Amino acid sequence: MEKRNGILPLFASFWQNPRNIYFDTQEPDEHILLFLRRHFVTNSGWIFFTILLLILPPLLFYILSLVNYSLTFLPPGLTQVIIFLYYLLVLTNAFVNFLDWYYNITVITTKRVLDIQLKDLISKKVAATKLS
Fewer CB near the last or first residue (10 Å), C or N of the chain? Predict the structure, then answer.
């Protein structure tokens, strides 16, 4: 993996001997050997599902217009609020899935192996074992 200006590339799943990467429990003489994350392809399921959910409302309105069915029983303002909340929910789900992939990493150092997992967006779980 090629380093660009000392910054980890956004979608990197493997980075050997990273520089300018640190974690909070790192000891002064401990150096990171490998920075690992699930491959980006593992996100294809939720990305496909998100795209499908994003296209669903326009597709539904198109199908309803083909069969001459109208949603006039709903006030226009309520329809817009429902659509806005729907898209907000879909995009929030996509963002949470991305954060789950991006922040669940494994770090192999000269002294130990750490598995760092983001839990509920506000806490993290760190599992570590010494290399000895």
Answer: C
